[in-house]
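Worked example 4.2. Below are the chains of a multi-component assembly; read each line carefully before continuing.
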Amino acid sequence: MIRLEQVSKRYGDTIAVNGLSLEVGQGEVCVLVGPSGCGKTTTLRLINRLVEPTAGKIFINGQDITRVKPEALRRTIGYAIQNVGLFPHMTVAANISVVPELLHWKKERITSRVEELLRLVGLDLSGYGGKYPSQLSGGEAQRVGVARALAADPPILLMDEPFGAVDPMTRDKLQAQFLRIQQHLKKSVLLVTHDLDEAIRLADRIAIMQSGKLLQYDTPEVILSRPANRFVHDFVGTDRALKRLSRIRIDHLVKPSPLVSINASAAEVISVCKGCRWVWVVDDGGRLVGWLDREAINEGALVKEAVIYGNPDDIAVTSGATLREALSRMLGQGFKNMPVVDENRRLVGEVTLSDIESATAEPEA
Amino acid sequence: MVAAFTLLIANTEWWQVGLKLLFPGEAQVLHPRSLLVLVSEHIRLVAISSVLTVIIGVPLGIWVTQPGGRNFLPIVTDIASFGQTFPPVAVLALSVPMLGFGLLPTVVALFLYGLLPVVRNTIAGLRSVPRDVLDAASGMGMNRAQALARVQIPLAAPVILAGIRISVIINIGTAMIGAVIGAGGLGSPIIAGLVQDNTAYIVEGAAPAAMLAILADQLLADIEASFAYRTNRR
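Applying the procedure described above to all two chains together yields the following structure tokens:
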């Protein structure tokens, strides 16, 4: 979809981008990361010709981008930047409508498209369309920026630190929203960030850059388990194994677990599991309420009296969580087995520490 | 407000009575030429020169902030500054031999004198547009003209209008000099009053001019405010 061939950009004596060759496939999210000054933003701006290369060629869908007028090219590429750059004198709706208007869309088409996009980014409460940028919070402005970039339904999206200017909680939400939208729309995305965790979370492939050169371009799993050189190794950090945990979900590791109802008798507890000591306790609706030590029951007590109550929010993880969250919870609670619940807090199974260990052991190089 | 002003100017008797009260010693308190005529002459002087200042000054300011004209920014700023430092009376003296007496040389002098606030504010206004906004505009596919028309000028408008307002108000005062070379206007009673040592004449010229300035200030400030609303600088 996007192909850079030996692209270089030089400013006087400084080489910002040095012989970069890169390809982004259709529907793929490529994240450029690297230290400040590595050339990642320049690379991004070479693609929509805000910067012109000193050497090399860039192709989009097989066509050399210098064959098209820059303005025409840019109207087919979504562009979202860190400080958003919303036009302060236009409403949210007018901001989003800019590119469709440049493309001479019909008014009704633009209006329905604006509504669609506001819904997509979660701003479809009435009134957002008529607000001005100065009335928006940082997170809302960022979302309008994304909506604006997607307005004309471009196949390609260029994003320069799009989630950088907000607090960590909002950034987490925006990243989650980005993943949801991307799953739905399957755009070809080139995203620049300095935050490696963000790259690991969002990317199909990560491109690590340094001093204008591309050092490694691969999936996050490979970059974390097989860094290409010393710099990449140091850049991804010494906690690589932990970082990889945030890429894997627990769902395929969840095993059925022994459980009893809170109203059960002692006999049921003993029969439910022969070899295990700890049993999860659920209510009538199947919701997790706590756990039980089988040794306490052997002494003839009732489940209701012997149960140790626990809040699912503290002692369990929801299905769909990452291994990283599960491990963190386990360490915090001191469990080796962690119950897994669905969004209604009903117990669906458990994950064990040893399963997580096997899942993350580094493959043989 | 415009209506109130017109009414005030039209009623010569009020002026006669008021000035006679203030200056009982003067034999004549009203200048021979009618106040209404004087005011309309004055307005004509100010209007023509201000319109010229705007239609030349604003495009000039726009031009030197674009890549094409950037090299000329220092020169244009210098000329505009020079226009304001060079005394209008001197401009008059120099232009009369070439342009004759009356309206034309006065308009030239007023035009030059009023240029600086307009040009300087146009430049400042356009430069104050945030860089991210400009980057977004280009990145989204606006060409130079579209970015200028849809983004830069609307955002710079309040500052530009402030410059125009300042220029017009100064112009109303400076236009007095026209009287020296027969261009008429509210300068006539003032000059006559100075020459004949008649304070009533001077007040007759200065008071309406002050009122005119206040009126113009209000009207232009209202226009400015309507742009500020749109840029939402509440």
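Take a moment to check your reading of the output against the notes. Chain B is about 80% helix and 0% strand. Chain B touches chain A through 23 residues (CB under 8 Å).
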